[in-house]
Amino acid sequence: MIRVWARVLSLALLAAGAVLAQDQPAQPPAAAAAPGGDSAPGPNAEPPGGKRVFGVLPNYRTADASLVGTVLTPAQKLNIARKDSFDYPLVLLGGALAGLGQLVDADPSFGQGMKGYAHRLVTNYADQATGNMFTEGVFPALLHEDPRYFRRATGSKKSRAFYAATRVLVTYKDSGGRRFNISEWLGNACSVAISNAYYPDNRTVLDNAEKLLEQVGTDAASQVMKEFWPDIKHRLFTKKEKAN
Q1: Which residues, at least 6 apart from 198, have a Cβ–Cβ distance to it below 8 Å?
Q2: Contact assessment for residue 17 and residue 25, using Cβ atoms and an 8 Å cutoff
Q3: What is the per-residue pLDDT for 242?
Q4: pTM of the full predicted structure?
Q5: Which residue of 2, 61, 70, 75 pairs with 106 in a disulfide if CB–CB is 3.0 to 4.6 A?
Q6: Cβ–Cβ under 8 Å, residues 45 and 52
C-alpha cells in the first residue's frame, strides 16, 4: 500500500508540473563554449534548476545537454550518488511516506506507535538511498556508464516528456555511444533484493518484481520533473516579480 501512495505522490507532482509549465516556452540549453572560452558548464556545475526540484527532490544527477560526451571519473559518479542519497530533503520525504504507511498500516509487522513509524522511516529512506547509490554510483562506475540525466530543454512538451521518461532504458557509455541502461535496472534490482532483509511482509518473487518496476517507474517520473523544473521555476519567479 505504501508503494501505491508513493506512486500517487509522484503523479501529483507531475500533474503540478504540467499545469505550471502550461504554455511556458522551454528555456534553451546553455550553448557550448567556443574553443578557449569559459561559458560552457563543467561537470561540477550546478544542475539546471538548482540542487532540488520543488525544494524536495535531489537534482544532482541532472546535467546540461552540452555536457553529453564528457566523462566522469568513478569518484565523481559516486559523489553524485552520495549527494542524491544523503541530501536532507530525502529524509523528509521518507518521513512523509512513513506517515502514509502508518496511516494505512502498510507492512503490519512493523506495528504502530513511534516504534512502527521509526521502522517505516528508516526502511523508506533505505529504499531511496540504496537505489541511488547503486544506480548512480556503484554500477555506473563498474560498468562505465554515465549516471547523469541530460536535460533536453528544447522541443515539444510531449517529446521532452517521452525523452525524459525513457532515459531509464537508454544511457551513455563512457567510451561513447548509447546502450541499454544496465545500471538503472541492475542497481534497483540490488536495492530490492537488499530490502527483503527488512520487509518481511513482501518477499515473494511477484512482490520483488513489483517493487523493481515501481522503483524504475519512480525514477522515470522524477526525470520528467527534472526536465520541466527549470521552466516551472522560471515561470514561478517571473510571476513573483510581476506581482511585486
Answers
A1: 122, 123, 126
A2: no
A3: 61
A4: 0.77
A5: 2
A6: no
> Residue 235's pLDDT is what?
85
Classified as helix, coil or strand, 34 is coil
Give the Cα separation of 216 and 168 in Å (integer): 7
CB atoms within 10 A of CB 184: 26
Mean pLDDT for the chain?
A: 83
In Å, how far are 14, 61, 182 from 213, measured between CA atoms?
18, 21, 14
For the chain, the domains span 68-243
pLDDT tens for each residue of 27-75: 444 444 434 444 445 566 788 888 888 888 899 999 999 999 999 999 9
For 193, list phi and psi in degrees, rounded to 5. Answer: -60, -45
- The Cα 109–Cα 87 span in angstroms is 29
Distance CA 134, CA 141 (A): 10
- Measured between alpha carbons, how far is 45 from 49 in angstroms, rounded to an integer? 11
